[in-house]
Amino acid sequence: MLFFSAVRKMARWQRTAWRLAPHALFKDLMTPSSERPAAAGKVARKRPPAGRPPRDAGPDEADAAPFAGTWKARVYRTPPTPGAWPVRLSYFVYAPPGLRKGCPVLVMLHGCEQTARDFAVGTRMHRIADREGVLLVYPQQSRRGQQNRCWHWYQPDAAHGYAEADAIAGIAAAAATDSQADPSRIYIAGLSAGASMAALVALRHPDLFAALGMHSGAALGSARNAGQGLRVMRHGVDAAPEQAMAALVAERAGFPGMPAIIVQGEDDTVVDKRNGWQLFEQLAWANGMDVDDSAVAQEKSAGNARHHRRTDAPTRRGPVVSVCTVPGLGHAWSGGDGRVRFHARQGPNASLLMWRFFKGRRRAG
């Protein structure tokens, strides 16, 4: 399991500011050379061989999934800002063959006990990127940032969760600028701890992201430490879901909304399935909708391995928030590469579900 096993080991927390030698940061990449850290707000550049994912101590099975495009390794460091904790993160950019200017960007956040490489191979999102011309960006938590590579979604403060969220937003903006992508089509998705962090990023930066995807994520706004995060994962939020969500968007006047798709396994013993429904209520509320009055449920692909139940909070232009629950699925990315830990062949292709939801959506304004 991703976060469940991690929180039991967390007696002491390491802050997200650390001193990291370049050779330690890049030791798991495809090439052995190293670079000096980037200047504040900049990125250090490094390119693994074309067609190979970054080597992040991922499983041997990862080599079974070929990559037709090219990978670039980067380092992002947040600029010094009063009241904000400095963060340095590595990230990896996948450009499919023939990528054009004005392309969309999808940021993908791994879960605990995962690396960017695990997540890239397990989700097989590169297959969609190759076909649709999408730039993929994989930020990676370091073991110095958190010993089990967990994102600090459960600790939303300036020294932890907010600092990481702002750094990830900076990575997304930097990658989009560097590739001359369409700034109105930047999306973010994640698994487990990565899903909850993706939500934190999107809700803090609705002027940057056009839509959000969450797979096996915990309900938002209630946890303030690891113990509370574990409780939310097991039971959901105690307060009304909308009240917990309100705290996350209260600081931003005129919150513009955030389209979102949620995928949740019904047999998940790490993040209880009630979290998926609470997220549905929370994100519908954030988009100005009452799911009790508007939700529409459908059975999809009944009778085969892709069976799932989809519930939408619709508008005249289509669903703004959707939740897909997958019977029999545990704590794993649905329809992924089952040879890679925390991914399952079972269920609908979550990567495709998310991309179909994202495609065509543009950030308002």
TrEMBL record:
GO terms for molecular function: hydrolase activity. It comes from Achromobacter aloeverae. Residues 36-64, 297-319 are annotated as: Disordered. It comes from the Bacteria. PANTHER family: BLL1128 PROTEIN (PTHR43037:SF1), UNNAMED PRODUCT-RELATED (PTHR43037). This is Esterase. The keyword Oxidoreductase does not apply. GO terms for cellular component: extracellular region. InterPro entries: AB_hydrolase_fold (IPR029058), Esterase_phb (IPR010126), Plant_Biomass_Hydrol_Est (IPR050955). The keyword Hydrolase applies. Keywords: Hydrolase, Signal. Coiled coil: none annotated.
